[in-house]
Every structure is written in C-alpha cells, then in structure tokens.
Design goal:
Blueprint lengths: L5 H15 L19 H6 L4 H10 L6 H52 L2 H11 L5 H27 L3 H10 L2 H18 L2 H25 L5 H22 L17 H9 L3 H21 L2 H14 L3 H16 L5 H22 L1 H9 L7 H26 L3 H26 L1 H27 L11 H21 L1
Helix pairs in contact: 1-3, 1-5, 3-4, 3-14, 4-6, 4-7, 4-9, 4-12, 4-13, 5-8, 5-11, 6-8, 8-9, 8-10, 9-10, 12-18, 14-15, 14-17, 15-17, 17-18, 17-19, 18-19
C-alpha cells in the first residue's frame, strides 16, 4: 500500500512549513507536566490535531479533506477529555501528597526524555513527508534505541542528584524504562503525521489514552487503597501498551523509495542533522513546562506540589480555545496579514478573560467537588494562575504568528524571559509565600513574555502598541454576534 499519495505529498509540504517554524506547543493542559503521563508532552508536540487545523489554512486552494480534518480535531478533543478525566481520577486516588509524589517521580524522567529527544521527532516528520526515507521503520527503531541511552543516563543521574526520598528515587529510576517505548511511539506518530496518514495518526494517539485510563479504572475498582507504585506501574504499562499498538499499526506500511541523492544518504545522519534546527525551541519548551515543578520540588513540600499541579490543571481548561486561535493566527503569519493579528490578540484576550472569571469564582466549589475534598483551594493562587493562563495563551498566539512569518527566534527569546523570571522570583517567593509566590512568579513571567512578543509583533507589522489593547465597539459587536452563533449552534444540537 502506497501511503504517500497526493494527500501525503501535501502533508509533507505542510509539515515542512509548520515544522520548520519550531512549533513547540506551550504549557497547555494536554502537554505539560500536569498530565499524568510523562510522554503526554511528546504527544501534543506530535500535533494533537493542531497541525491539521493549520493544514486547512496553509493548503488554501489545494483541496484538504474536511472529513479528515474533522476527525483529527475530534480525536484531539477526545484526548483532552480523557486526559482531564485521568487527572481527576489520579487526584482522587492519591490525594494532594500522593499527587505531589507522583509529579516528582515523573518530573525528571520526562524532562530528561523530552530534552534528549531534541528535534528528532520533527525531523522524522519532515523527511517522511518529503519521501526521503527508504526504511522509515528501521530508522525509527535505531533512533529510539540510540537516543534512549543518553536520555536514561541523564535521567538516572538527575534523579539520584535531586530526589532525596529513596522510595521516590527508586520509582523514578524504574520509570526511566518508559524512554525507549515512548521514543519509538513518538517518532512513529510524527512519521504518520508527516506522510499524511491521519487515520493511523489518530488511532494510535487516542488508543494510548484509552489504555491508560482503562488501567487506572481497573486498579481503582479492584484495590480500595491504591499505593503510588501501582499508579506509576499503570502509567509505565500504558506506555508499553502504546508501543504494541504502534507496532500493530506499522504492519503493511510501505513508502515509495527515495529518489536521487536522498536514496543514497545515511538516513539517521540526515534526521539528526535536520533535528539540530529544532533543538533549542524543544529544550526551552520542555524546561518551561517543567520549571514550576522543579522550583516547587526544591523549595516546598510534595503536598504543596500536588495541590499546585491540580490548580494548574484546572486553570488550563481554556487551552483548547487557545490552540484553535493559534491555528488561525499561524495562517495569518504565513499569509503576511499584518492588521489582523492585533485584532485577534485583543479580542482573544477578552474572550479568555470572560471565560476565566466564572471558573475562578467557582474554583472554591468546583475543585474540591471534582478533584476531592482534600484539595483545599487557595483563591489567590488560583486567581494568579488564571492571570498566567490569559497571558500564556495570548503569548502563544503571538508566537504562532511570528513562526508563520519564519521568525522562530522571537519565541525562544520569550521563553528565556519566562524561565528567568519564574526561576528567580519562584525560588525567592515560594518559601515565604507558598503557592501564591509560585503563582505570582508564573503570572509575571507570562506577562513579561507576552509584552515582549507584543513589541516584536508590533515592530514586525509596523502597528502601534495601542492597536493590541484598544477594544472598539466593532470588536464587542462581533464578539457578541459570535457568542450568539455558538449558543444557536448548541440549541440546534439539542
């Protein structure tokens, strides 16, 4: 079966455009360390339907299959829902202290795995989409094994250096066994994305999350009091379940043989050389996603870490809306549309604010109701995390726009600003202020990152800074009209 059809070639062109921008995802609820699966970061980086939303815009007049796009977006929504249900289940099983211990167990293995992967996954997508891989499965196996060695060695060293509790250090060391499996899984997912085989792309991603949730539900039903090592084992087993699912879907995969110079080059060397272009954005993204956990793990207790992880997960419920807007502004950047980005920025910021306010006001009731009564809400910390969320999502939209204009360095600069502010303020504020100090550091980091990106976009598009903050009557009227359309659609679906 020749998978690289015309759709595959179009997918390759999209990936070369989208992947070359260094898209790294941001700290959304579906990809960050709040997710209970250390590999969830890598899955979101694999596209999560966002690349498909882009492809519909990037292809323009080239015929993108709306059915495929709808199915991929549906798969992404399913993953978001399953991830949130899983996070709620884990919180109820373990409580605040156990949830913090789990976060600490997963923290350094997933950080080491994410950084050591560099940009190899993206390079696989690009070369696969171009048809430059003669033996893609063999290349995936070799790269997964090759990259696992430094990742596991680095993870082992960091775990023994930073995790003081012997029991947690042992669990983290055992969990490092997930690295080869998740690398094979992630590289294969990117390969399917690159060649345009979105049926397998969606089936594998959704299948993993279903397996993980099913294992946790079985454990929860069988064992009245679930120890931490059972939850870690369930996560580890789900990764290898995903590995077997991936191998199953690779059956019958055939790609046309590479032509010309590509047919004679060393495929592993080609992937590694291309991956170098993505290394810095990937490293910064993984660090930014894990930075708050690193600070809390070193400056507070595991119980506070568990509480904060749940607060963070709750406040990132708005992230799917941010991802949808991001796909739109990415297209605007590619099309060199200068005026629209300021309009989208100020309108989306207002939408995020309107959605965040009721969630914040209801947090004191909703969080204990959903996650368990042990998760007592610190209203100030949750409020600051919502501020962080507003500016983080807005910054991601600006970053997507700049990436569409092939200006990847701006996003790297913004992430550096965020990491410096969070590291310095978080390290100093957590001991006296606790979770409020951590939330304040994150909020200030995201605000400054967002302001930096606004200035970059303003200069790049030659628009006044006021255009990004000055709401007009037309903005309000069109937002109200859009809201009415959404409500009308809900009534129709009833």
């Amino acid at each position: 079966m020749r998978l690289r059809s015309e759709a595959g070639r179009l997918g390759g062109r999209v990936l070369r455009c989208a992947t070359a921008t260094g898209r790294t995802g941001g700290r959304s609820q579906s990809r960050d360390a709040v997710c209970l699966h250390a590999h969830s970061k890598l899955f979101t980086l694999a596209g999560g339907g966002h690349a498909l939303a882009r492809s519909a815009h990037v292809l323009g007049q080239e015929q993108a299959d709306p059915t495929v796009i709808a199915r991929t977006l549906g798969a992404n929504l399913a993953i978001q829902a399953i991830t949130f249900v899983t996070s709620v289940l884990i919180a109820r099983i373990l409580g605040p202290t156990g949830r913090g211990e789990l976060a600490l167990v997963l923290l350094y293995p997933q950080l080491a795995a994410g950084i050591a992967l560099l940009g190899v996954d993206r390079a696989m997508a690009v070369l696969g989409g171009r048809g430059d891989l003669n033996r893609p499965v063999a290349t995936v196996v070799k790269l997964a094994l090759l990259l696992s060695i430094p990742a596991m060695a680095a993870g082992y060293a960091v775990v023994n250096w930073r995790v003081g509790d012997a029991r947690l250090a042992q669990l983290a060391t055992i969990y490092l066994a997930y690295v080869p499996a998740v690398y094979f899984y992630s590289l294969t997912v990117f390969l399917f994305n690159g060649i345009g085989d979105f049926v397998r792309f969606n089936q594998i991603r959704v299948g993993f999350y279903i397996v993980n949730l099913a294992l946790l539900l079985i454990i929860f039903a069988v064992v009245p009091v679930v120890p931490l090592n059972w939850v870690v084992s369930a996560n580890l087993a789900s990764v290898y379940g995903a590995l077997f699912l991936t191998v199953w879907h690779l059956r019958g995969l055939k790609l046309p043989r590479a032509q010309g110079a590509a047919a004679h080059k060393n495929e592993m060397r080609a992937v590694l050389c291309l991956a170098a272009a993505f290394a810095l954005p990937v490293m910064l993204t993984h660090l930014s996603a894990s930075a708050y956990q690193i600070v809390l793990a070193n400056r507070s207790s595991v119980e506070l870490l568990g509480l904060f992880v749940v607060y963070f997960s709750y406040t990132r419920l708005l992230s799917p809306a941010g991802a949808a807007i991001g796909s739109h502004v990415f297209r605007s950047g590619i099309a060199q549309e200068k005026q629209e980005i300021a309009v989208v920025f100020r309108r989306s910021l207002l939408v995020f604010l309107v959605c965040a306010l009721p969630l914040w006001l209801l947090a004191g009731w909703l969080i204990p109701l959903v996650f368990g009564q042990e998760f007592v809400v610190a209203g100030s910390a949750v409020g600051l995390l919502f501020v962080s969320c507003l500016f983080s999502l807005s910054a991601e939209n600006l970053s997507e726009y700049l990436k569409g204009r092939q200006k990847v360095g701006a996003d790297a600069g913004g992430l550096v600003i965020y990491l410096v502010i969070l590291g310095i303020l978080g390290w100093g504020l957590v001991p006296p202020l606790g979770l409020v100090g951590m939330a304040l550091a994150m909020a200030l980091g995201d605000i400054l990152r967002c302001l930096y990106l606004v200035s970059r976009v303003s200069r790049d598009t030659q628009q006044a800074l006021s255009e990004f903050s000055k709401l007009t009557r037309r903005d309000l009227a069109e937002l109200l009209q859009a809201g009415k359309s959404v409500l009308l659609g809900l009534r129709v679906w009833r």
